[in-house]
Amino acid sequence: MDNKRTAYICLICACFFWGTTYFFIRIGVELIPPFLFAGIRHFVAGILITSFFIFYKKAKIPTFDILIKLFFIGLLLLVFANCFVTWAEVYIPSGLTSLLCCFVPFYMLIFNVIMKNNEPINKYSLLGLLLGLIGTVLIFSDNIYLLSNTSYTFGIILTVIANIAWALGTIFTKKIKLDISPLYSVGLQMIMIGFFVILFSYFFEDYDNLKFTQNGILSIVYLIIFGSIVGFGSYFYAVSKLPTTIISVNGYANVIVAMSLGTIFHGEDFGVKTILSLIITMIGIYLVNFGYKNQNS
Q: Which of 127, 247, 262, 270 has its CA 20 to 30 A from that of 175?
């Protein structure tokens, strides 16, 4: 199997499993402080990943220079992006979080142009991104009124910061070329960032209402395996092989997965508006991919 095909499969895996994480994060933060929850998730996942590479693959510990670069990228992707989304879901519904996160592709596009990432975008890709945005906003149109709720302001600000950090972290990951396995680099980032976040949690979060219930533990286990190891590992591999424009559709595909799961497991309405939203979003994703292939043909 060639690298591009593997990268597409990895991107699909990341889209699917990250589409399920909003639900499990919401369960976790109702029982466990958000930074402690995120820190445990990443630290344990990092230990598992790096143990595999060090003891089975006989990989060497990277140089200090590489570790610093990984820590910087980890701050953007795992702290200011992932941890802030986890924190935001303490204050806002997961549906509103999903709605706000669908703007990530446009942050990526803007930063890609500003930073001159040598990945030109054509009219098909731009139209595809626009249709994807329209489709995902339409899916959550019933939640748009929540944006005016002042009690959600802090959560909305956290999510916007997370989106910007995710876009920047993804682009820096592409620009900083490291001679190291994408999955191994993810594991090292998770250990460093996970420890940092747990330490931060110990000093600044309140543990009085901490509850390690069965649901809380199951949500952490799910996020460790499928959100961190499978999701981040797949995403980083895809980032290393595919252009930013293709990677950015992850923000739309997540919504499709989340909406589909909501329909299957929670009996959420799947009416004409939802079907139309999904069709528009899928057309947008297709156009982004078509635009990429067209400029490289």
A: 127
